[in-house]
Amino acid sequence: MAEQLSFDLPVREARGREDFFVSPANAEAVAMIEGWQGWPSHKLVLTGPPGSGKTHLVHVWAALSGARIVSAADLPEADIPDLASGPVAIEDCDAIAGNRPAEEALFHLHNLALAEGRSILFTAEKPANLWNLTLPDLASRMQGTPASPLHEPDDTLLGVVLMKLLADRQLSPTPNTVPYLVRRIDRSFAAARDVVARLDSLSLSTGRPINRALAAKLLDNA
Predict the structure, then answer these.
(1) How far apart are CA 130 and CA 127, in angstroms?
(2) Per-residue model confidence as pLDDT tens digits over 128-167
(3) What's the start-to-end Cα distance of the chain, in Å?
(4) What is the pTM of this model?
(5) What is d(CA 205, CA 202) in angstroms, rounded to the nearest whole number?
């Protein structure tokens, strides 16, 4: 069969609270986000592997609190006093380890926001004691911040994640496709993202619908 033309269409991620499935792997973090007004010291670190829902929950929190969202790497160019004037979410904080300007900017934002009585949410893949920050005062403040983890998915959550990733790509699998994938891929968010991307590509290139047979072909050739 001749390969079909394929088009790299944008993925539109659903990030509303109604789109976030609560399971034992993330229930604690969801409760902390929804109860944000009771955070000790007005701050929280949200940790978890890529694809676990950190950014989704950041957007849920922003909708609840009116917070602005910024990447930690962009802080050296940001207006820190302006950011500190309201709730703020800082993403990928562990990615700035060794970046002195970014570490200093995060340190000043942390101190100024809390001095103003504002709430601040940090995200990272790892717990704060593993960030390898080089600014001691920042490291101590981050390690003293309450943290809530997002864990790798159980089978139920993995199935929901697969359905969401497919829906984000406007894909409609047959009913037996996702249960088949859940039984056969690694139980991780990274594996779910990888298999959905490859399944989308294979469907586009072959012109075949996304069903159990196509999933089997993909996994057999992996």
Answers:
(1) 6
(2) 999 999 999 999 999 999 999 999 888 988 998 899 899 9
(3) 20
(4) 0.78
(5) 5
